């Protein structure tokens, strides 16, 4: 097999760690289940160690690489092996048009993992599968199951769009140069057809529930901010639908809804997607919505829509939602950034300026 040229300097800021372990490369190929009619999109081909294994299997391989030196290198290797079905182009995986493809293969730098997941799962037409190599901690959050320590907004929102499977762990020694963290290969299978849900409503609900994911839902819905936001949305919905608002406090309507679904004393990490669907539907039946309907003209809340979904829908919130006791603010993961704060919406409750319960009792 034609070898890559020696002497290419790798840049850490671009997350350039080349996978060299042939056993791992073969597992990635096997997970991809490539057909001879497939168009494969490869993100971050580097010098082409995976690319040269894809070319004899696929109809065409479209390799997107941010480093022009790597683009030249992978073209050189493919040409040297006599392959003419490679389209290698310089581009940023977060901005380049993907076009149509059947299978995605990607070696992801950690800093772009969440926004790339968003771009990939929002892409149309739907692809058949994706095999991603990413930092192990991030991968564990993608595949996290109900009740596990890694179960978070990232897990439940990703699994709303696709099924995620572990393929294999990858040690640091499998790369040149070795990264400081372990990696993991995961496989994504998009739900086809996609689940029908208003993602604005879904996101609003999930943010409240996972704000302090180890508290009960009753406690999560007790804050003054949540009551104020839901009451405002409820009154707006009643006004627009010529309904007379219920003459009782919003907290009673919330409590009634939680009891109906049987989740009052359940914690966010113990509930699966189906239960959250039931909870959202129960709130909506009462006219309680997680998006201000006055801000969404022409689109009734609850109708299936991708509106309002951006890369932060798949934000890796990690353990930021772990409470530290009465008055505690919980741990914050770095990397949230000013951009996130600037894009806050009425349903974004990640702010810490109003974290007190309506009443004083702590419900952990």
Quick structural overview:
With 364 residues, this protein is of the alpha/beta class. The strands form 2 sheets. It has a 7-stranded mixed sheet with strand order 4-3-2-5-6-9-7. A two-stranded antiparallel ribbon has the order 1-8. Helix 10 crosses helix 11.
Can you put this structure into words, describing what you see?
This protein has 364 residues and is α/β, with parallel strands linked by helices. The chain has 2 domains: 174 residues, Rossmann fold (3-Layer(aba) Sandwich), CATH 3.40.50.150; 125 residues, Helicase, Ruva Protein, domain 3 (Orthogonal Bundle), CATH 1.10.8. Helices cover 33% and strands 13% of the residues. The protein contains 12 helices and 9 strands. A 7-stranded mixed beta sheet has the order 4-3-2-5-6-9-7. Strands 1-8 form a two-stranded antiparallel ribbon. β3, α3 and β4 form a beta-alpha-beta unit. The longest helix is centred in the middle third of the chain and has 17 residues.
């Amino acid at each position: 097999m034609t070898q890559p040229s020696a002497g290419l300097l790798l840049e850490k800021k671009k997350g350039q760690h080349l996978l060299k372990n042939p056993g791992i490369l073969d597992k990635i190929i096997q997970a991809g289940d490539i057909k001879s009619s497939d168009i494969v999109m490869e993100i971050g081909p580097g010098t082409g160690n995976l690319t040269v294994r894809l070319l004899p299997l696929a109809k065409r391989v479209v390799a997107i690489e941010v480093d022009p030196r790597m683009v030249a290198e992978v073209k050189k290797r493919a040409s040297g092996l006599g392959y003419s079905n490679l389209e290698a182009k310089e581009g940023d995986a977060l901005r380049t048009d993907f076009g149509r493809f059947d299978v995605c293969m990607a070696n992801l730098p950690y800093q772009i993992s969440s926004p790339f997941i968003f771009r990939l799962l929002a892409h149309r037409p739907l692809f058949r599968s994706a095999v991603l190599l990413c930092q192990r901690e991030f991968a564990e959050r993608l595949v996290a199951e109900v009740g596990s320590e890694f179960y978070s907004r990232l897990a439940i929102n990703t699994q709303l769009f696709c099924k995620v499977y572990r393929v294999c762990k990858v040690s640091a020694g499998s790369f040149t140069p070795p990264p400081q963290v372990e990696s993991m290969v995961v496989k994504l299978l998009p739900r086809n057809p996609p689940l029908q849900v208003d993602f604005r409503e879904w996101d609003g609900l999930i943010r409240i529930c996972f704000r302090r994911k180890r508290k009960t839902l009753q406690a999560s819905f007790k804050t003054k901010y949540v009551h104020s936001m839901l009451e405002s949305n409820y009154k707006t919905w009643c006004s627009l639908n010529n309904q007379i608002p219920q003459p009782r406090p919003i907290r009673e309507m919330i409590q009634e809804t939680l009891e109906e679904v049987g989740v009052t004393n359940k914690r966010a990490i113990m509930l699966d997607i189906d239960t959250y669907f039931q909870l959202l539907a129960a709130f909506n039946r009462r006219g309680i919505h997680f998006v201000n309907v006055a801000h969404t003209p022409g689109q009734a809340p609850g109708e299936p829509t991708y509106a309002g979904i951006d890369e932060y829908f798949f934000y890796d919130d990690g353990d930021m939602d772990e409470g530290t006791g009465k008055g505690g603010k919980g741990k914050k993961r770095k990397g949230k950034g000013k951009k996130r704060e600037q894009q806050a919406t009425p349903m974004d409750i990640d702010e810490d300026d109003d974290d007190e319960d309506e009443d004083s009792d702590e419900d952990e």
